[in-house]
Amino acid sequence: MSDISPLVKRSLVDQALDQLRLRITQGVWTVGQRLPTEPELSAELGISRNTVREAMRVLAFSGLIEIRQGDGSYLRAVIDPLDTMKALSQCTHEQARETRHILEVEAIGLAALRRTDEDLVALREALGVSGSHYHGDLDSYIACDLVFHRRLVDAAHNPTLSELYRYFSSIVGAQLRQSLNIFPRRQEVFDLHIELLDAVEQRDPERAKALSRQLINEP
């Protein structure tokens, strides 16, 4: 019996993706730059326009490019967000907690200084919805809680922090789910969210950061 493994035939779309990702990592295009058109890429790669279109859809789904209807495709990132998510998913509970202290606490301190009245309206709405689910279905509560925390970070008005936190929020959700599957939900923990919002509303960054640390350290 032969020990030779059968060859795996890769699709043209996969091969096109390899070529496009290679150009991105090599810096052929810069973030924000308009990419060549489908006919141009088709001619350059020696493949059909349909294959190019499918490859571009995959890149758009992963967050590397943005397809603007009637305008073209633009490079959005040079690191594949899906690869980032895979790396994040392997972090330990303690590593996730440490990262939250570095990222979330400081962002909330900035939010207390920079929040607008519109931010407060959005935060109150998110907290109200979260509170209505606190003693109900766990997955529904976690989804609502993440909206509140993302809006807190957004209130810092730093797009880079917001983007980083969006990547990381899935890990926050997993950490929260793990904790709440072990420890019962306590009203005093949810009340910390109310105090946190009050600190942001009162423009008290040190109190907001202290409450954020307390929430993160809760089991």
What does this molecule look like?
This protein is mainly alpha-helical. The chain folds into 2 domains: 12-79, Arc Repressor Mutant, subunit A (Orthogonal Bundle); 83-217, GntR ligand-binding domain-like (Four Helix Bundle (Hemerythrin (Met), subunit A), Up-down Bundle), CATH 1.20.120.530. It is 68% helix and 4% strand. It has 10 helices and 2 strands. It has helices at residues 12-25, 38-45, 49-62, 81-88, 93-114, 117-133, 138-154, 159-180, 187-201, 205-217; strands at residues 65-68, 72-75. It has a two-stranded antiparallel sheet with strand order 1-2. Helix 5 runs antiparallel to helix 10 and helix 6 runs antiparallel to helix 7 (138-154). The protein is elongated and about 65 Å long. Mean pLDDT is 88; it is low at 4-8.
Number of domains: 2
Count of helical regions: 10
What's the CATH class label of the largest domain?
Mainly Alpha
Gross geometry: elongated
SSE sequence, one letter per element: HHHEEHHHHHHH
CATH superfamily of the largest domain: GntR ligand-binding domain-like
Q: What is the alpha-carbon Rg in Å?
A: 22 Å
Share of residues in helices: 55-70%
Main sheet strand line-up: 1-2
CATH architecture of the largest domain: Up-down Bundle
Q: Which class best fits the helix and strand makeup?
A: mainly alpha
Strand content range = under 5%
- In total, how many beta strands? 2
Largest sheet data = 2 strands, antiparallel
